[in-house]
Amino acid sequence: MSVKDLGHAATVTREEQRGQFETRYMRINVGPQHPSTHGVLRLVVDLDGEEIVGIKPQIGYLHTGFEKTMENRTYQQCVTYSNRMDYLHGFSHDLAYVLSVEKLMDARVPERAERIRVALNELNRIASHLVFIGTGLLDMGALTPFFYTMRERETLLDIFELVCGVRMNFGYFRVGGLYRDVPDEFFPAVDQFLETFPKMIVQYERLFAKNDIFVNRLKNIGVLSRETALDWGLTGPSLRASGVPLDFRKAAPYSGYQDYDFDVPTYDAGDALSRMLIRIDEMRESMKIVRQAVDRMEPGPIRDPDRRISLPPRSELENSMEAVIFHFKLVTEGFHPPRGEVYVATESARGELGYYIVSDGGSMPYRVKIRVPSLINLQSLEPACLGGLFADMVVNIASLDPIMGDVDK
Amino acid sequence: MSDKPTDVELAAATKATVDALEPLGGVLSTFKDMVSVTVPKEHVVEAVRLAKENGFEMVSDVFGIDYLTYPGHQGKRFTVVYNMRNPDGTGRLFIRVELDDGETLPTITHLFKAANFMEREVYDMFGVVFEGHPDLRKLLTPEDFEGHPHRKDFPLGETPTLFGEGRFLDPAAFRAGLIGADPGLTGWKGGAAKGITSEQDFGQGAGMEGKESGKP
Prior knowledge:
The structure holds 2 protein chains of 2 kinds.
Chain A: H1 14-17, E1 26-30, E2 42-48, E3 51-58, H2 66-70, H3 79-82, H4 90-105, H5 111-139, H6 144-164, E4 173-174, E5 177-178, H7 186-209, H8 212-218, H9 226-231, H10 237-240, H11 248-251, H12 272-295, H13 321-332, E6 340-347, E7 352-359, E8 367-371, H14 373-378, H15 381-385, H16 390-400, H17 404-408
Antiparallel strand pairs in A: 1-2, 2-3, 4-5, 6-7, 7-8
Helix pairs in contact in A: 4-5, 5-6, 5-12, 5-16, 6-7, 7-12, 12-16
Chain B: H1 12-21, E1 27-31, E2 34-39, H2 44-53, E3 58-66, E4 78-85, E5 92-99, E6 104-106, H3 115-126, E7 129-131, E8 161-162, E9 168-169, H4 171-179, H5 198-201
Parallel strand pairs in B: 2-5, 6-7
Antiparallel strand pairs in B: 1-2, 3-4, 4-5, 8-9
């Protein structure tokens, strides 16, 4: 951007300035290793004094080629990779991936499996929002909330560990169901969490959401109007903070989300404050869904009985030759979905997430295209930051909630 | 898409858009609930604009598919897919364009600012050039990386990866270094695999001299 394009004081040319102070634009580099960039985000920022006149994200530092890797793994093996992109909301990627393959295979997922999926997905959404709030405030210099939010997240990670054996990178969902049923300790742990967590949210609200310093710091910062947000392809809570009630759990329900009673909170201001506060409201809604999902859970199978997809039960392997053959074929070769291309849009903690899978009839996907929300949402950093102060850039990055693993795939 | 078009019931808005795209040479294909329209390359901007006017006002994604090794594929090698949806998220339409290696596509960034990163990713991964794009640079791969990794003929492992500025990594040599068949990149020749303990090798520069020095 040349000096002449920039309006007000900047329209003065070099010649006119001779004898006066000579002003010019400063181009500085932020990141990729910087605590406020939530990973490895590099920004090239053009500054006019303190004001941002140009900002270009430089990404790809975490590019791992998951899509290409998945083309060379069987459908069931890909679950190992999907959750590694968005490491804070891993269940959303697992769910989006298995939903696409299940659509391809016409799999019938048992009701209990769907309830467990929804409960875990929503608990994970709460965990993700907790990190968002904690680190977001950390970026603004508020150290204390980070410890509080991490404390509650720890409880959630313990629940995930009970269920899957790991705290992140779950790989718990399977095409057609789940890896195993939840243990009995899962229910009292969730009950206890749902009982204590509302008090914690009140505590957060007292700590910062109703705090004058916090509110004044974030109010009218990084305003994205409804039109701007839609034009730049923003989705998820950040879009709902700009007044668009788009939520794929409501718009195109999957995994039985149409059966649950929950609201889609929206804010109209579209500033960083709304984007922060909407996450608190979303945690309340997620809790409602978890409560309903756990209450409605009936005992039952957790995998599609279809032998094309699911491994035969362990007990059958001892006395059924056919079961051994199915087991061997599924483990070594995997199943063969019909030829076709599918896409299922889901709502992750960051926005629209979907896997476009091209099948050529083989046991590995021909092409996997992941519509990751963080990558597209990151573009909105430009309209949010332009014309603002440099110090507000950090706030804007935090409030748009990009996860760099999700951005770079 | 599917081998034969099925007679699914299209939603009214989708039907209107598909009808509007027909004069441009749009060919409808459906698979399960997915509705795709393949349009000729020269009409792609017009098709996207028409879809936008008919209610599919958002572009969710733009991505490429390389059909080079797809069994029984006829037609051009690449397909670029525009994943369009309506603002309330209930309807979706896929606009597909087929093109050969070396052919270019016009940009749609003047219609959707969101398409900026999406088109850059297609360029990065497949080498499809979008004419008129304001800032067509690579998005995810390093600046000195050569090639477009999502092409089906891009070498996959066990093949030297060439970076610019003389950086060069040969995975075969790297692996040979790890298993002790060769000094490899680091000079470490895998003593453990040959039964050499660190005590024996200590003081001899950890085997940096060459293959013979670390004999048990």
